[in-house]
Input
Amino acid sequence: MRSVESRFSDNGNRDGRPTAAEPRRRPTAHHGGRERGFSLVEVLIAVALLAMVSLGVAQLFAVATQANFAAKSQTSTALLAVQKMEQLRALAWGYDQQLANLGLPLSDTVTDVSVDPSTAGGTGLNPSPGGTLTANTPGYVDYCDARGVWVGNGGAPPANAFYVRRWSITPLPTNPNNTLIFQVRVTTVRQAQLAVAGTGTVRRIGNDTWLVSVKTRKAQ
Output
């Protein structure tokens, strides 16, 4: 009996749990290591990354805003150019069908399309002088405000002008008596002022719209 009791007292109970005489051990805290936290270097790196991301987002927002403004301006210049082109093409350019002048060329050479509404006293479809697409030439230029409403004409834009609209009328070299080339160019007043004119070449400036059309005489 003594040998059995001694064996049980040395090894505890058989399932490995401590006996009543042996107190339960509690895990002790290790105070040797420091508590984990954010160092100053880590905070500075996080702030720098956040600043870089914020700067990228701000630049993207600025680019998107500029793109929206450019798209709106492009749409407005296109509409104004189409409007003037239709106005030019509506002028008489054909052959007279009246018995007294049957078959004779009929051309509008008096309508002033630089005013709204158009009136007599202008140049109509007479060939335009050189440089009307790059300079404000009276009779071949008018101005509109930011909403596209006509506000004036002449060599200098009014104070409330936002868009400048220029056009040219050129006879086709191979058929000058019967075919005309219409060109309409619309841009902002600001872009027109920044453009360099008189260089010998006509170039697009900014987000302007440039339309070209041809009209041949037909029976009216």
